[in-house]
Amino acid sequence: MNYIAQIIIAFAALLLIVVLLLRKGKLPVKYSLVWIFSAFLMIIAVCIPSVLDFLTKLLGFELASNFILSLFLGIVIFISIFLTVIVSRQSTKIKMLIQEISLLKEKVDRINDKNE
Amino acid sequence: MRTDKVLLIIPAYNEEENIISTCNKIRSYNENFGTNYDFVVINDGSKDSTSALCHENNVKIIDLVENLGIGGAVQTGYKYALENGYDVAIQFDGDGQHDVSYVKKLLEPIKNDEADFVIGSRFVKDSESAFKSSFMRRVGINIISFAVKIVSGKKIFDTTSGFRAASRKIIELFAKSYPTEYPEPITNAEILCLGYKVKEVGVSMEERVGGVSSIRAWKSVYYMINVILSILICSSKRKRK
């Protein structure tokens, strides 16, 4: 089996996992898009060898497999930066929620004490 | 600026040993000197009896439903100050490090429109503080102070001081955004970069009676990198405006 078939199988498996997660509702469509897009990109890249060879030479890689590996690494780095941004945005929101709930609780306690 | 309604924000994490004595000191100061400083304890998810003790002693307390860290806790205090119409909010340590009799001195520059933000400092000329922190920590403070000077052009000597008075404008600013980690040096630089007037006044501080400093030895390298990077970033924000 040559590397192209292996890569196609790997990314088809990735697509399958993403679709299964989507169906179960464990992954929102918003975040699945980046995975589906990158998997398709990879499959297309390896299916059309002429384009792949052209890009490999253009970017100065010796082997197409090195190019694919680098491309995939780039995508993964991009996704992890994207995830870090999401995590920090969410922790800011959680912090705000904790603060607002705690302030409200204090206010409710104060009003209850007054009424008793 | 008005300084009629003053709130002391006392963040507390596992401070059962000191919190009540700190609050009682403020109460007796209010009685003896006819001042009217309100104070609120922000309980940052303590696992000890901090919360129970405060409720027993009728101390105004906000129990955070989850631990937020010092920045998130203090910011809750600023939000409370904003909501309840306080003129000035002062950060005050729950562990007996700060002395309530210096609050008056911190309020003075705000009252006279000399400053929007006042820092209680151990390192300015009129400070009588015997406790000046350890040598290594002073080196760290000097480096941070130098970084603040580079980005803002102004010198803050005690840039890690947690004894600070914020006028209404700064309360609004802090209620909106406040760093989670190591807020003191970072906000000092931010406020200066935004063009607010900052003044340092000498205070004396005690060595902490109980509890552990939030700056642990093994974290100090991370602390320095984090703080200096944050300060440099805040200067780039100013240029954009």
How much helix, percentage-wise, in residues of chain B?
40-55%
Query: Largest protein interface?
Result: A-B, 8 and 14 residues
Which bin fits the share of residues in helices of chain A? Answer: over 70%
Overall mean pLDDT of chain B: 88
Instruction: Write down the secondary-structure element order of chain A.
Output: HHHH
Q: How far apart lie the N and C ends of chain A?
A: 79 Å
SSE blueprint and pairings:
The complex is a heterodimer of chains A (about 120) and B (about 240).
Chain A: H1 3-23, H2 29-47, H3 49-58, H4 64-115
Helix pairs in contact in A: 1-2, 2-4
Chain B: E1 6-12, H1 19-33, E2 37-43, H2 50-56, E3 61-63, H3 69-83, E4 88-91, H4 103-111, E5 117-121, H5 135-152, E6 164-167, H6 168-176, H7 183-193, E7 198-202, H8 220-240
Parallel strand pairs in B: 1-2, 1-4, 2-3, 5-7
Antiparallel strand pairs in B: 4-6, 5-6
Helix pairs in contact in B: 3-6, 5-7, 5-8, 7-8
Task: Kindly summarize this structure in a few lines.
Chain A is an all-alpha fold and 116 residues long. Chain A has one domain.
Walkthrough of the structure:
Chain A is an all-alpha fold. Chain A has one domain. Chain A contains 4 helices and no strands. In chain A, helix 1 runs antiparallel to helix 2 and helix 2 runs antiparallel to helix 4. Chain A is elongated and about 80 Å long. Chain B has a domain of 167 residues: Spore Coat Polysaccharide Biosynthesis Protein SpsA, Chain A, CATH 3.90.550. Chain B has a 7-stranded mixed β-sheet, with helices on both faces. In chain B, helix 3 crosses helix 6, helix 5 packs parallel to helix 8 and helix 7 runs parallel beside helix 8. In chain B, 44% of the residues lie in helices and 15% in strands. The two termini of chain B are 27 Å apart. Chain B has 241 residues and is of the alpha/beta class. Chain B is built from 8 helices and 7 strands, in the order E-H-E-H-E-H-E-H-E-H-E-H-H-E-H. At the A-B interface, helix 4 of A face strand 3 and helix 3 of B.
